[in-house]
Amino acid sequence: MLLSIPDVLTPEQVLKARGVMSGAAWVDGRVTAGHQSAKAKTNEQLPEDHPAARELGDVIVQALGRNSLFLSAALPLKVFPPLFNRYEGGQSFGTHVDNAVRQVPNSPHRVRTDLSATLFLADPTEYEGGELVVEDTYGVHSLKLPAGHMALYPASSLHHVNPVTRGARVASFFWIQSMIRDDGRRAILFDMDLAIQRLAADHPEHPSAVALTGVYHNLLRQWVEM
Is 8 within 8 Å of 56 (Cβ atoms)? Predict the structure, then answer.
């Protein structure tokens, strides 16, 4: 399931994030790439332990916790601390698949990467190219979202970032371990949750809303991994 989630960050939060990042020292983005990905990756990245990355990462994680669309779609168990990258001057990231497991820096904790997320921090008018291109069973999808909006997609998907030919593409990227490992099951639960919400809004007294909510939670009990 590929999903665009609007307004994860407010315009004010995006502006503050850009200001914090502007004074930081960027490094070669291959520091967090696997062996194969490193061959295809040319960009810059904030060091994982940089105070700016930690500060902004906390803001993003808190925003995700308030975003009902993200919570419904991802059913998150763990969120990898957000990372930050920048593409400019023809930089790109060739077709790759994300590592299945990520070690949280300076901790014994690991995150199974069920979902990948790209949170755009530059508006499309600021740069040319830089589209996130995701391949799935339904074809090839190109995304270039407004600042503050986020793309969420299965980490098992092949994906790449097109070369940036003008300006700079700035974004945060991270991974989510879901309570529901299987993408197909997550999609069923997401569709059911949205349908229940619409039914409850349109017909708040309809007994089917309670019955369907029961079905949703019974499926969740059957499939959840904690």
Answer: no
Of 3, 143, 170, 7, the C-alpha closest to 83 is 170
Interhelix angle 11-22/51-65, nearest 10 degrees: 170
User: Cα(102)–Cα(95) distance, rounded to whole angstroms?
Assistant: 19
- State the DSSP H helix or E strand holding residue 199, giving kind and residue range, or none if neither: helix 183-202
At residue 34, does pLDDT exceed 80? Answer: no
pTM as predicted: 0.93
Distance of alpha carbon 32 from alpha carbon 54, whole angstroms: 16
Rounded alpha-carbon distances, angstroms, from residue 171 to 104, 161, 191, 210, 225: 20, 12, 28, 40, 30
Say if residues 67 and 5 touch (Cβ distance below 8 Å).
yes
Cα 38 to Cα 30: distance, rounded to the nearest angstrom: 5
| Distance in angstroms (rounded) separating the CA atoms of residues 3 and 18 | 24
In the numeric block, which tokens belong to residue 192? 């059911």
